Amino acid sequence: MIFTTEKGKTLKAEASETGKIIQAESSEKGAVGVQTYKTYFKALGGYICTGLVMLLFLVPILCVAFNNWWLSYWLKNSAQVRGA
To answer: Which residues contact 26 (CB under 8 A, 6 or more apart)?
Structure first.
């Protein structure tokens, strides 16, 4: 990947002109754009890989939630069966 500066030159070309290797960073204000998320997803290995990683984080959370619900449902119904 080749990075360019605000002037449209490559970092190496601008460093040779100015004699500086390090530049001050620029930042934008406001919401994060969609293009930024697309770049992150591509860096994580693409959309499929990113989706699988998110799914791997989501499945255990859903399993714990279902487990808690099932246990409360089971206990509530077992109390009704025994007549308590």
So the answer is: 6
Residue type, 9: K
Q: Which pLDDT belongs to residue 64?
A: 98
Buried b (16+ CB within 10 A) or exposed e, 38-61: eeebeeeeeeeebeeeeeeeeeee
| pTM, entire model | 0.51
Share of the chain above pLDDT 70, in %: 68
How far apart, in whole angstroms, are the C-alpha atoms of residue 47 and residue 10?
29
Q: Which residue has better confidence, 69 or 80?
A: 69
Answer yes or no: are the C-beta atoms of 4 and 10 closer than 8 Å: yes
